[in-house]
Model the fold of this input.
Amino acid sequence: MQKTQTKNKVKTKEEFGGRYQKGVYQQLPKMVYRGPALPVPPASPLPPHLVRRQKQLLEGGVRSLANPSYGWKLRSPQRGTSRHLLHEKCGDLCFLMPEREGFPVCAKYELTAPSCKFDCGGISTAYRRAKQYKYPLVAKKAKKLSKILCS
Done:
């Protein structure tokens, strides 16, 4: 009696492991593995022309007279932890708007190579952004710094 009850038992979706079709769960064919998967290259957030010169740009030795802020993207302190650390270690001098940690003019603070030096790329970028976003006092400070340090 028990054997007939187990034979007539309807399997559930989880037990059968398939899909529902025409009132019955059909078993799906097993996927065939066809060799090793190709490794996915790591996505770089930088454009290719900056990836090739990343080491030089990080050191800050490359300076273009046509564009003094070239490579500033790699050296700039990003919002958040990087800027908080720079403000904590170097003080208000590294920002043209220190109350908001805005317009940084020093390169990011690295624990391996601590430095609080002004960066001409940061100064020129701060000047352009200040003019763009209508901060005349910040633009004036940036222009003065540029004449003193980057000429």
Observations:
- The mean pLDDT is 79.
- DSSP finds eight helices and four strands in the chain.
